[in-house]
Specification:
Helix content is 33%, strand content 14%. By secondary structure, the protein is α/β, with parallel strands linked by helices. It folds into two domains: 2-99 and 292-325, 3-Layer(aba) Sandwich (Rossmann fold); 106-283, Rossmann fold. The chain is globular and about 60 Å long.
Length: 326
């Protein structure tokens, strides 16, 4: 099969053990990003299968209808960026292995703690001060005895909570009514109100999927409810926060620090961007899931789906009616 892999910006996948699963296929790896569907269709015109790199490229009807040779889209995880109906209408099978009650994305949980520690102990600023020959530049804060507020009672949030408790932090939760009910029934601490959650947390960390219901869920009012010396951490999606709210909260000193791995525009390469360049923002370039171990697991699953399709035994089908009718 002619397999095209999109958005592998640093040509990483070739270095992973799982890449050998594509031996025998005609593989093209694209290391840049193309937004325009017409230009992307020209690039993919001979593709039998396309492997998506997370949610970096949207698969729209305008794209799919220009790819008559395309038979399969393979990826891992949720697929809000894929027009499934357009795929079905054009006889394109979407295969995506969805996590079902297994281990969380520990890589994302680990980076969350990297950002929390960086913010609370002023690690980036202290490093810069040291390298500039100025030695110490201030005094950070201990974690023990402080309150960690986790928004979203899911697998990643629970992995973050385990570490917080090991540090001696008080852990509390907020989220949907269903999530809060589950947290409470599990013996976790759930404040009496949303405002109390934000007001009483020294660190608030977001762990939610970005879906229409959660877009803009965290408002400027929420951030204004936080303590002025508190830290907001976001390793989930930038769209969870209302547009402009995080920058406004930093500019008006509503919160002390924002430590984020996600931005509204990605890749964000404008060093003068108002949020990116803010002196109280600690940022990483969406690397929460970017580890060799996580890549090998995720793309190993995507490549297994390629081989299963080639063997006429497709797995993890999202729109199986395409296969049944072919």
């Amino acid at each position: 099969m002619k397999v095209h892999i999109l958005d592998d910006w640093f040509d990483t996948l070739r270095t992973l053990p799982c890449f050998a699963k594509l031996d025998g296929h005609d593989v093209t790896v694209w290391t840049d990003h193309v937004e325009d569907p017409n230009a992307l269709a020209t690039r993919l015109r001979d593709a039998d299968a396309v492997v998506l790199f997370r949610e970096r490229t949207a698969v729209t009807r305008a794209l799919v209808e220009q790819l008559p040779n395309l038979k399969l889209i393979s990826q891992r995880g949720v697929f809000p960026h894929v027009d499934v109906q357009a795929c079905t209408d054009n006889d394109v099978l979407l295969c995506s292995k969805l996590p079902k009650g297994g281990a969380p994305n520990y890589a994302a949980a680990e980076l969350t703690w990297g950002l929390i520690l960086a913010a609370m102990r002023q690690i980036p600023q202290q490093m810069q001060s040291l390298k500039s020959g100025d030695w110490q530049m201030g005094v950070g804060k201990s974690l023990r005895g402080r309150t960690l507020g986790l928004y979203g009672y899911g697998r990643i949030g629970q992995a973050v909570a385990e570490v917080g408790k090991a540090f001696g932090m008080k852990v509390q939760w907020w989220g949907s009514e269903e999530g809060r009910t589950r947290a409470f029934s599990d013996g976790e601490t759930v404040p009496d109100s949303r405002e109390a959650f934000f007001a009483s947390s020294d660190v608030v960390s977001l762990h939610l999927r970005l879906v229409p219901e959660t877009r803009g869920l965290i408002t400027l009012k929420d951030l204004q409810s936080m303590r002025s010396d508190a830290v907001l951490v976001n390793t989930s999606r930038a769209g969870l926060i209302a547009p402009g709210a995080l920058l406004e909260a930093l500019n008006t000193n509503e919160i002390a620090t924002a430590a984020v791995d996600v931005f509204d525009t990605e890749p964000l390469t404008d060093a003068s961007d108002a949020l990116l360049s803010h002196p109280r923002l600690i940022g990483t370039p969406h690397i929460g899931f970017v580890t060799q171990d996580e890549f090998n697991k995720q793309f190993g699953d995507a490549f297994d789906q390629i081989n299963a399709f080639a063997a006429d035994e497709p797995i993890n089908m999202i729109n199986p009616e395409v296969w049944k009718s072919s």
